[in-house]
Amino acid sequence: MTDSRLAALQAAAPDLRLKTEPGDLEHYGRDWTRRWTPDPLAIALPGSVAEVQAVMRWASAHAIKVVPSGGRTGLSGGAVAAHGELVLSLERMNKPLAFDRVDRTLTVQAGMPLEAVHNAARENGLEYPVDFAARGSCSIGGNIATNAGGIRVIRYGNTREWIAGLKVVTADGEVLDLNRALVKNSSGYDLRQLMIGSEGTLGVIVEATLRLTDPPPPTNVMLLALTSFEGLMEVFAAFRERLQLEAFEFFTDIALKHVLAHGAVKPFEEVHPYYVVTEFAIGDEAKEAAAMAAFEACMEAGWVADGVISQSDAQAQQLWRLREGITESLAPHVPYKNDVSVRISRMPAFLKETQALLGQAYPQFEVVWFGHIGDGNLHINVLKPAEMAQDQFVRECEQVTKLLAQALKAHEGSISAEHGIGLVKKPYLDSTRSPAEIALMRGVRRAMDPQALLNPGKLFDA
């Protein structure tokens, strides 16, 4: 705290919590990528919008770079502070603020964990439907900053669809109250939507008004074993035609191997190349009969080799663990993660091409594929061989990502489906966006943050 700049910040905001201990700097200065050595100036933990404003006014006056921080569960280096930036953590701003039963909205502070948002909505008889495995540790502000998707996009869409309004602090400390939960608002540019997915480069999201919906209907879960990826797409089409799908997630035999080694229960005696966990609405005999009819039709067509349907909530959770446990089971293997998307119709061609490409170019790597079939999102995890040094592994994986970027450009896909660009994907942004788009994005950034103070180096260099 001997730094005169921090003394000035503390004077400007006397009740602001500041941390400078080495352990705190390391903890708050990184995200789940673990690829950069944290080196922040300090950690600021505001407890109010006014304190966030004070931080940004101080940063503007002293030309201090600022990294907004939520749960830091990102996989693209978007919350890394490695060059003396101030980390602005919203974790203390973690409470619900208001519930409106008529508008069916919930206003919350940006540091509120997603699971707490779910609980607050349910306490009022409604649902915030965006969901994913990191629900207990990620924050709603971070979800908004990356337009997070998750396992129920097929039914409910991405985070973007559920944001009725945002309160944002700008780089110079002004507060923007965007859209104010209006359903219709044709009064010029929708800056709320611009903030969603901006990765903290345009402003600090401090509050969000979330749209809520009815609780989901009773559901059941089915695990399917499939013979081919082409067949998987046929199964998706068959189930989507007959059922109200809540989720449709796939993973490979390699992914299952790792989850089983991590303690999950083996679902089938035989090993199959692809698996699907699907959740769908039930509630009456007709819907249950439709589910069985879809399963039987896919069996008869030869697309499905085996299957099991949950008979209890406990068994449903057990089946979901086979999908949601993948990330945790891979963590000891230091995976290099790619998060890509293509149009749903192009997934079979893209997967076939990239599996062959990576198998030929990098036979020494074990590659784990899983993802969200209903929205064209594939997670490609390259596992580090135990004997390979980490820096060499990252260098070789960056060559893998270059190959993926080229394939994505050919298939008109995206290098980042739901984790943002951050530092990891920045070199490959031009595989997804045209030079004209990138130039416009840079222009927007300059207009809103002329000093390039907010989350510097993320998305693209200022």
UniProtKB/TrEMBL annotation:
Q: Which GO terms describe its biological process?
A: respiratory electron transport chain
Family matches, as PROSITE patterns? FAD_PCMH
Q: Which cofactor does it need?
A: FAD
Which InterPro entries would you find in this protein's record? Answer: FAD-bd_oxidored_4_C, FAD-bd_PCMH, FAD-bd_PCMH-like_sf, FAD-bd_PCMH_sub2, FAD-linked_Oxase-like_C, FAD-oxidored/transferase_4, Oxid_FAD_bind_N, Vanillyl_alc_oxidase_C-sub2
Q: For the FAD-binding PCMH-type domain, which residue ranges apply?
A: 36-215
Indicate whether Flavoprotein appears among the record's keywords.
yes
Protein keywords: FAD, Flavoprotein, Oxidoreductase
Q: Which molecular function terms from Gene Ontology are attached?
A: FAD binding; oxidoreductase activity
Gene3D superfamilies xrefs? 3.30.465.10, 3.30.70.2190, 3.30.70.2740, Vanillyl-alcohol Oxidase, Chain A, domain 4 (1.10.45.10)
Task: Report the sequence similarity comment from the record.
Answer: Belongs to the FAD-binding oxidoreductase/transferase type 4 family.
* PANTHER family (alphabetical): D-2-HYDROXYGLUTARATE DEHYDROGENASE, MITOCHONDRIAL
Name of the protein: FAD-binding oxidoreductase
What organism is the protein native to?
Answer: Pseudoxanthomonas composti
Highest lineage ranks of the organism?
Bacteria, Pseudomonadati, Pseudomonadota, Gammaproteobacteria, Lysobacterales
